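Quick one:
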Amino acid sequence: MHHPESRPARRPHLLGNLTRVAQPGSPFGAALSCCRKGLGALGLGLALIGASAPALAEVKVGVSDWPGWVAWYVAEQKGFFKKHKADVKLVWFANYTDSISALSSGQLDANAQTWSDTMGPLAKGLPLKAVLVNDNSAGNDALMVSGTIKGFADLKGKRIALEEFSISHFVLATALAKNGLSQKDVKVVNLSAGDAAAAFMSGRVDAAVVWNPWVAQIEKSGKGKALFTSKDMPGLIPDLLVAQDKAIKSKRKDLVGMIRAWFDTEKFIRDNPDEAAKIMAKVVGMKPEEYKVFLPGTRFFDAAANQAALNPADPKSLQAVAPTIAGFLLDKKLIDGKPDAAKGIDVSLLAEALGK
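Output:
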C-alpha cells in the first residue's frame, strides 16, 4: 500500500507545465498525491528506481496518484497483464515530478503523465511518444461560484481563487475564452487548491477553481455550484501512457499487451465500480467510499475513444488540442519553444493492439 500525502493537486513548478500536485497538510490525509509538477531536476527520479537502466526483461512504467493511472493496479491485480503476456513492472512515484524526470532521462520505459506535461520534453526534442490515453478529466475540475453569480457576465471584476499556472489556471483561461472574457476581466487570487476552496466557502473570494474532492464538498455544503467544469472542455485534460522511443522498439510486444490489458481494465471499472474502487483505494490508503467520488469525473478511455484521441482529424484528438495547451504554456512562459505534437504520438501500437 502506498501512502501519498494528499489528494490530486495541480500546482506549478519551476519549469512550468500544467500539473497536479500533493497538498501537504490536507485534511484528507493519505490520498491522491498526484504531484504533477513537471520536469524539475532530471535526477530526482533516480533515487526511487535506481541509477541503472531498465532491465530488458520487463517494461518499467512509472505510476502516480491519479484515478486513470492508479487503475493500472487493477490491471495488475486482476491478471490482465499476464493474460496479454505483458511483462510489466509498475513503479510507484509518490512525487509525480520524479516520474516525468525519470522518463525524460531514460530511467523508465514508459510513464503515466499528462499531455500538458509532455509538451516541455517534446519542445526540447526528447524521444517520447504518447501511445495510449487512459482518461480525460470530465468534471473532476470545476469553476465554482456563489449563488449571486448567474453567468459569466457576473464574473467581471470578481476575485477567483486558484493555483496560478496550474491545470486550474488553464481551466479558468479556457472557460473565460469560451464565454467571451479574458483573464483581464477577473482578479486571480493565487492559493493552493485546499486554501482556494476554504477561501471560497468562507466568502473571502467570489469563485474558485478546484478539483475533487473539493468540488463535491462545496456542492454538498450548498455554498456554491459549478459554472464550468472539465466536462465542458473535452479533450483538453488528457492523461496518458507515454513511452521512450527505444522502449517502443525493444519492448513493443509488452507495450502492445499493456494496451490490451488497459481495455480489459476500463471495462472492469465500468462493470465493477465498487470492486475497482476498493482496489484503487487500497493502493493510495483511502476508504473505497471516499475514492468513489473521483470515478464519475474521470472519463476512462476505451478502444474507440483511444482511436478518436489518436486520430489527428478528430477535433478533440491529442494533436488537435495540442496548440491550445501549448499556447497557454507559451503565453505563461512555462515552456521554451513550440512542441511538435505529431512527433510525440505513436498510433501504431494501438493499431496492433486492436489487430489492425
